[in-house]
Amino acid sequence: MTLIFTFIQQAIGQGIAILFGATGEIMTEKSGNLNLGIPGIMYMGGIAGLMGAFFYENHAKEPVAAIGFVVALLSTLIVSMFGGLIYSFLTISLRSNQNVVGLALTTFGVGFGNFFGGSISKMAGGVGQISVKTTAGAFRASIPGLSQIPVIGPLLFSYGILTYVALILALATTFILFRTRRGLHLRAVGESPATADAAGIDVTKYKYAATVGGAAIAGLGGLYFVMEYLGGTWSNNGFGDRGWLAVALVILALWNPAHAIWGSLVFGALYILYIYLPGLTRATQELVKMLPYVVTIIVLIITSKRNKPENQPPASLGTVYFREER
Amino acid sequence: MSTPAIELKNVTKRFGSVIANDNVNLTLEQGEILSILGENGSGKTTLMNMLSGIYYPDEGQIFVGGREVSIQSPKDSFELGIGMIHQHFKLIDVLSAAENIILGLQGEEILKMQEVYAKINELTAKYGFDLDPKEKIYNMSVSQKQTVEIVKVLYRGADMLILDEPTAVLTPQEIQKLFTVLRNMRQAGKSIIIITHKLNEVMELSDRVAVLRKGRYIGCVETAKTSISELTEMMVGEKISLDIHRSQPQDAHKRIEMRGITVRNKEGVRMLNKASFVANSGEILGIAGVAGSGQKELLEAIAGLQETETGGEILYYAPTGETLKLTEMTAENIRNLGIHLSFVPEDRLGMGLVGSMDLTDNMMIRSYRETGHFFAHRKAPRELAEQIVEKLDVVTPGVDTPISHLSGGNVQKMLVGREIAAQPIVLMVAYPVRGLDINSSYTIYNLLNEQKEKGVAVICVGEDIDVLLALCDRIMVMSGGNITGVVDAKSTTKEEIGLMMTGATKEKADHES
Amino acid sequence: MNHNTVTNKEPLIRMVKRGHIGKKRAWTIRGIAMLISLMVCALVIVGITGQNPLQVYAGIIDGAVGSNRRIWVTIRETFALLIVAVGLVPAFQMHFWNIGAEGQILMGGVASAAMMIYLGDALPNWLLIVLILVVSSLAGLLWGLLPALFKAHMNTNETLFTLMLNYVAMQITTFAIVFWENPAGSNTVGIINSATQKGWFPRVLGSNYGLNVLLVLAITAAVSIYMKYSKQGYEIKVVGESQNTARYAAINVKWVIVRTMMISGAICGLAGAIIVSGASHTISTSTAGGRGFTAIIVAWMSKFNPIAMLAISGFLVFMQQGSIQIASQFGLNENASDIITGILLFFMIGSEFFLKYRLEFKHRKENAK
User: Fold this and answer.
1) Distance (Å) from the C-alpha of residue A223 to the closest C-alpha of chain C?
2) Higher pLDDT pick, B201 / B513
3) How many whole angstroms separate alpha carbon C269 and alpha carbon C279?
């Protein structure tokens, strides 16, 4: 029983970063932009938050957790939005191919994360393994009181604040997309930019906003990973391929962030399943680690059988739009 | 006289080196219906797109309500009270009618759909539309979608409406309903522009007619003081009598026979319903009907490009006397059997040709396998391209130019030229003269006649009934996926065909006309 | 309704599509973009290291071509990137987004390593190398075939399918490493056959990497000829442009998709052999090293022109090798090269816009009233 609870707790811990990425990617894709740079942006967001906190803690005589928290959060948002801006400028304003720009951005972003992650201590004067305990503590603090309740407490209330932010953002994004005017306009842009344009919607503005906003949300996934999951440190390539899993989760969730919540739990569970399955050798463990990708491929195949039009990807996904094209 | 609703002065629009609108002047008075008349490619749509904010003029001025304006986006256009209903509906399939109608409007951030539904219902009741605001667009018919478009414009309180070829996809009954609505709107003081190339509609509906020809403004006349022949002259430049040479079919044999063929589209809608007919060698069989009546599916079924439902069959009677079953064969199987079936599809650059390839490569699309082993030979296709360019006066910098750089008419000539050069036994052409000028059209008619005289079975889908009457030997009429009858082109009347296009069978049409 | 907001307003900058652009002009624009990107890179490097930019670029040149060995490493890496880009060309011409080259390379690499380890003592070296080339191609072919089959028959999105297969391939690699690790417990394979050099490419043209260059050149030439002159190459282009047209032309679209991806996958698999047997003589999850992704950009930007592919590969590798040198010189880590590559790519991708469009600055016209 305890084992199952630990498993669920761990699965949630794995899933949250992916959920942030998927929510951001859904918002982006709803505008018609397939941003394959999301994995890179998550790296950028993660390292930016860590560096922000690190410089703050190194320079402040007595670091205050709350300030570290704000500094890390702002650093993440600014840098990941910058990543989204690069993508937007190239694909929206300069009309470059989305796949090509996305992959270049991921190359850049992963390099950016690993470079600064690897060099930060050296640049700060060689303090060895960097760690921002004070700030990470703020991210890891669980809800007092509630988390003490037996069973329910550890299962539901033992996480840091970003876990709840991820859930709220996913639900809020769903609400915005399907219940508000801006959401309607955004969906229209992703389905048919020409139609949206003819209806007087500023396609460029919506695409920029959704892509940069989506990048900010995805970047929080990186911040979650370095602060809550790793506890305020960096390991090169430690974030691994979670960014790609976020892109995959978009499909599993049928472009609805609310669905991505349980989807992220499934992915999280598959990600750590090898630890909990008894009788695995080192070799077979590696095979079990394949599961998230194999499951995604299976889902991809199943959804490729056309069903309801509402469950299909946004119709203009991956294409650039130019009004005077003839 | 009050100030005009809209006034265009010396408006010019270019696309690269092509001049789409050359120094056009136009006035729309308040509370009138103005027709803009012109052949395909005369620049009507481009001109109106500058009012709706899709394009921005290179030169000239636009006045709305007497004030000079600069319309840079559809939003600017809405704000001036202009609403355009495009020929290709600008609706989003996965959204509901109501969501499409409020698209782009400002208002409270949280959507209150009940209020929207109520307001739409009020409007539809007022003008007598039939529309469920909750229905998704992908479940709607063409006419329903058009209703959504019109309600959309009314919902945002437009008092100037532009309709681009609104009748092209409607049945005559639907057209009458539309006209009633438009007259109601004029009554309510709205100013309306309708773009069309159908003269009878112009005469029936509009107060004044403005004519464009090859991007230039020719003139504007009052409908009451003009005639069809005057308008035709303005539109085409010179008076044209359709004088197509037609020889008597010689030695006709059954060539293609279709028996009870049904085709459904991806959504499961029946596009062709138990169609049966015969096409003979040495004759031209015309197919008449409103666009989307199943003509495309019919031709593609014969060419092996459509899956047909079981139960029907398509037979090919070879000149050698053999009978082959084409049903359930793919285009590949048909080719492998050596059946010379030429096909000019409706969608030229989407099916018949590859836009980014040059003329030479486009000539070998259907024949590249026939020579050589591993490598493709380009000498013969190159010569063929050069021949067609010369014979049909194709305007192109050379045969190495990507075919998408050519104008629509020249693209069409290359395609028809290629298909005829394949020495067909059966030749199927869809809208062979669409986008062509009068002289080129006659060249094509002569080519088709030549083929007929050689004993080819020609099947020709057309949109202009006059042309079909003068060109074909027999005319088959289609309506909503059904074949409503086959008539003799020499003895039938335009009215009879028109009635059959609305779904009346030949017997009923005979009775009524 | 506020009419004033739309009165007499003209867009300041308008984008106009170019009809045609000359080769010279096109390369001038690309050249300018490269220069700007080099300046931005310099600024970034200077920002991080605080060094004189000229010194930094001297360091980069030194790192890329500063010694005979470095020149050969730069050549080796250039051709390793080139062959992957060449492998992607058939797929891209068909508008099939094969972003799974990374996995196809790895599968080829694993196959080569397996041959070297298990057959190293059993076969004469020339036969072993031929076998390595064949088997690694087959492994890549299989990895290209899978998504192609589903694309052809069920229209399954190939971008995401091939992407996911990269990670399946990565897990297969770590799975194999468990069995091959040397020394035990290191979780790495080490140099395979380091004593016997079995399965290693022999010295050709006086270099360890001569065979790599020859193989890649041969395949580049073959693919160029295949795409330009063969019937199959013609079919690929028709299918890529419009499947409707392809069906109309009686082309078996499904078979063309499958066949083309087998070719594409096989070449990427072969690239794995060239990297493992011809260069690193080991296998790890970073054997593909992002080449599968970078090659996509190389192939796309060069518009599939082989000379342009060689030039762009060379430029990128030059900068990568140079920045690895810079990084070690200033005690930074080698991921600096990814940042540099990223910046270069952004500018090169962005420059394509100015080949297709020109900006028109509109001056306010005088009102002639």
Assistant:
1) 20
2) B201
3) 15
Please indicate, yes or no, if residue C340 is contained in any of the structural domains: no
Do the bridges between strand C357-361 and strand C13-17 make them parallel or antiparallel, or are there none, so unpaired?
antiparallel
User: Which residues of chain C neighbour B375 with C-beta distances below 8 Å?
Assistant: 229-231
Question: Which of B 276-335 lie inside 8 A of C, CB atoms?
Answer: 303, 305, 330-332, 334-335
- C20 found inside a domain: no
For A2-311, the fitting CATH number among 1.10.3210, 1.20.120, 1.10.3470, 1.50.10 is 1.10.3470
Task: Confirm whether C247 is domain-assigned.
Answer: yes
Say whether A286 and C356 touch across the interface (CB within 8 A): no
Give the nearest chain C residue to A94 (CA atoms).
C353
Chains touching chain C, criterion 3+ CB pairs below 8 Å: A, B
- State the chains in contact with B (3 or more Cβ–Cβ pairs under 8 Å): A, C
**Looking at chain B, which residue has its C-alpha nearest residue C235?**
B365
Domain spanning B6-236 has what CATH number? 3.40.50.300
- What pLDDT, in 10s, does the model give residues B277-290? 999 999 999 998 87
Whether residues C156 and A241 touch (CB distance < 8 A) is answered with: no
Q: Are A7 and A276 in contact (CB under 8 A)?
A: yes
For residue C192, what are the domain limits?
Answer: 83-322
Contacts of C103 (CB under 8 A, 6+ apart): C143, C162, C165, C166, C167, C168, C169, C170, C288, C292
Q: Do A237 and A7 form a contact (C-beta atoms < 8 A)?
A: no
CB contact under 8 A, B92 and A195: yes
**Residue B307 confidence class, pLDDT cut points 50, 70, 90:** confident
Contacts of A324 in chain C (CB under 8 A): 15, 17
The DSSP call for residue B358 is B
User: Would you list the domain boundaries of chain B?
Assistant: 6-236, 254-340+423-512, 355-422
Mutate to test the interface with B, among C239, C245, C247, C363 (most CBs of B within 10 A): C245
Tell me the CA distances in angstroms from C118 to C27, C179, C195, one per residue in order: 49, 12, 15
Mean pLDDT of B415-442: 86
Answer whether B6-236 and B254-340+423-512 agree in fold.
yes
Lowest mean per-residue pLDDT among A322-326, B196-200, B376-380: A322-326
Q: May I ask the CATH architecture of the domain B254-340+423-512?
A: 3-Layer(aba) Sandwich (3.40)
Residues of B in contact with C1 (CB under 8 A): 79-81
Separation between Cα atoms, residue C56 and residue C250, nearest integer Å: 58
Q: Can you point out the beta strands (E) in chain C?
A: 13-17, 357-361
Nearest neighbour of C3 by CB, restricted to B80, B355, B368: B80
Of the candidates A86, A108, A286, the beta carbon closest to that of C175 is on A286
C292 to chain A: closest CA residue: A103
Residues in B touching A197 (Cβ below 8 Å): 54, 73-74
The pair of structure tokens assigned to B506 is 């030949």
Strand order in the sheet with B160-164: B67-69, B59-64, B6-15, B18-28, B216-222, B208-213, B33-37, B191-196, B160-164, B82-85
* Number of domains, chain C: 1
- Count of CB atoms situated within 10 Å of the CB of A275: 12
ipTM for the complex? 0.88
